[in-house]
Amino acid sequence: MIRLKNEVQINGIRSSCKMLSAMYRELIPLVKPGVQTIEIDKWVYAWIKKVGGRPAFLGYGPKKNPYPASICISINDEVIHGIPSKRKIRDGDLVSLDSGIDLGGFISDQAISIEAGKMRAEIHALNAVTCGCLYRGIEAAREGERLLQIARAVNGCAQEKGYGVVHQFCGHGVGLELHEDPQVPNQPHGPNPRMGKGFVIAIEPMINLGTGDVEILEDGWTVVTADGKVSAHWEHTIAIHGGRTEILTEPLEAFTGLQPERIAAPVPV
After folding, report:
1. pLDDT tens across 124-135, in order?
2. Is residue 266 part of a domain?
3. Is-above-0.85 flag for pTM?
4. Which are the contacts of 244, defined by CB distance < 8 A and separation ≥ 6?
5. Residue 85 included in any domain
6. Is residue 92 part of a domain?
């Protein structure tokens, strides 16, 4: 069941989203070659606790295998849900970060992909297009339109460049829980409800240099590309209310040094 949010709830979710984006702005300069991903996770946990929030990802999932960190750090062929470890970031790695904050029961969700060190041109292009796909998806999120318009926009954006679109994982409703209905796919399939006032969703293109097929590693969390090629991931939490579509998390691409390919203009905040 889709939980439509009222203005009080949207205000709370917005506060959580602004806090999450503020965290990323401080974190981005720390993501560089030589840094262990576990050190990034420790920093994220401390930052969120310091400002009075709770890491929304930590402990999420099945009781037998809950997610063990405050941020997902997925590198190169890791698409999503990479678990922080003693692994060091290397020059030329594409590092995708995905995190959320529970701020008094209001939950945010945002992902970015950071180019560490000197980046191959084809990986940089993938990253820029993936960020552009996110904004094309947001452009399609309009009151009265059908949900799968987002998927058609994202999928079309990626296919124009010959990239693979991950179809086994998708965006989702968010705000009062980390994952809510509806699912927000990046390829047009599944339920197609009409988007209305009070919709709060996370749109998150996961775009691969090769095939869109993925596999899950033995840790039960880390999702990798089936062909071992690089994947990029960008995500915003948005709300449809007051006759407009609002990006609740803040655009961060400028802080990563990325100039996204603006295949469609972003929606004004």
Report:
1. 999 999 999 999
2. no
3. yes
4. none
5. yes
6. yes
